[in-house]
Amino acid sequence: MQEIAHPLASSVFRGLAGHCPACGKGRLFWKYLKVNGRCEACDQDLARYPADDGPAYVTILLMGHLVVAPMLLFPIIWRANPAYSLPIILSALAIATLAALPRVKGGWVGLMYALGVKDSDAHLHTADAAE
Q1: How far apart, in whole angstroms, are the C-alpha atoms of residue 48 and residue 113?
Q2: Span 125-129, average pLDDT
Q3: Coil, strand, or helix at residue 76?
Q4: Quick check: helix, strand or coil at residue 2?
Q5: Where is 128: in which H helix or E strand?
Q6: Is 107 exposed, middle or buried, given 0-12, 13-18 or 19+ CB atoms closer than 10 A?
Q7: 125 is a domain residue
């Protein structure tokens, strides 16, 4: 089993906060979901840690459990006129999803940093590697 390269909890929490997982001082994103190429504080190469579809899957999972499932418990949701309730529910869900996605992606990059997973490791997970 591979040894963890960096402290897991602090790296993930720094990423969740939108900071560099290595030093916690530099900003992780330069746009909404665009990861900085390098940390301006410690010069860590942040672009090498993959965050392909994982953050989107985790965000969908979170929204499904934290937002959609509890809404089913309140009868007012399915008894109300859909012309009123549907736009309110969909707007709230969209806002919650858009707010959660950069935090989840930051935590994902922090996890990849802590585990030492890099873009160059992609060849280990292809069909050619199994042969």
Answers
A1: 9
A2: 54
A3: helix
A4: coil
A5: helix 127-130
A6: buried
A7: no
> Is 1 inside a domain boundary?
no
**Could you give the CA distance from residue 82 to residue 80 in angstroms, rounded to a whole number?**
6
Can you tell me the distance from the alpha carbon of 13 to that of 108, in angstroms, rounded to the nearest whole number?
10
Length of the chain measured in residues: 131
- pTM for this model (two decimals): 0.82
Residue 1 has which token pair?
């089993």
Residue 65 above 70 pLDDT? yes
Residue 21 near residue 6 (C-beta atoms within 8 A) = yes
Give the tokens for residue 102.
Answer: 């950069």
The total number of structural domains in the chain stands at 1
Give me 113's structure tokens: 């940093």
DSSP, collapsed to helix, strand or coil, labels residue 19 as: strand
Give residue 103's domain range. Answer: 8-117
Residue 107 belongs to some domain of the structure? yes
- Is 71 within a domain? yes
* pLDDT greater than 80 at residue 125: no
